[in-house]
Amino acid sequence: MEKGRDHNENPQVAENHSHCPPPTTINIWRQERWGLNHHGLTGHNLDPLMILPSIGSKEADAITFFEFVSIENLNHYQPSQSWRNMMMFFSQTVPSVRHAALALALLHRDFTDRGSPSSLHPPQSFGDYPPGHLPLVHYNRAIELLLDHDTGDNPERTAITLLVCYLLTCFDHLAGNYVQAIKHLRGGVDISCKMNNSILDKEDPDYDATHSSVSTVINQVTRQIRRLDLQAVTFLVDWIPTDTHDTIMSQSSPSDDVFQTLDQAADCLQILVNEVLRLHNTGQQFNGTSEMSASLFISRPIVLRQLEVWLNRFQNMVPRDTSHENDTDTGRLISLLRLKYGVAWIHLSSFGPGKEMEYDSFLTDFQQCASLADGIATAHERHPGSLKPTFTPEIGIVPMLYLIAVKCRHPVVRRQALGTLRRHPIREAVWDSICVARVVERVIDIEESGSQQAEQIALGQRIETLSWIHVENLPNPPRVDITYVFCGRGETHTESLKI
Question: Taking CA atoms, which of 17, 147, 211, 257 is between 20 and 30 Å from 368?
Answer without folding.
Answer: 257
